[in-house]
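Subject: sequence -> structure tokens, single chain

Hey, anyone have a minute? Need the predicted structure for the following. Not urgent.
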Amino acid sequence: MIGRRRKRLEQGFTLIEIMVVILILGLLATLVVQSLRGATDRAKITKAKADIAELKTALERYYLDNGSYPTTEQGLQALVTRPTTGPIPAQYENGGYVRQIPTDPWGHPYFYQSDGNSYVLKSLGADGVEGGDGVNADIDGSQQ
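Reply:
Had a minute. Here:
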């Protein structure tokens, strides 16, 4: 009778064994989530750089056609629709230079400033504030 009782007790896991397994699974899940988060941040930075490269190409085409860049007042929207204020472009491309102005991967507008001869174009990063480091760093595409 004692042998049968002992056999029945040895068949399951103890509470401590179950808790150790849950702890190990939790640690592994934390490591996986952290590595995926880093990959997401890197993907957003890459996307911002690609958007900036596309906008720079459109700005250069605008410059070649019109002899100046859109002013700060005209903004990047001048690449989508012909400006009606400031220096009016003489040779504006039919249909504009891009279909739409994207927001950066963090949902902020790209920063653009220009006097017509040079420009500053950048993403202000995840925090939307100038400066910072990591994902909060500015991603610069300026032309001097």
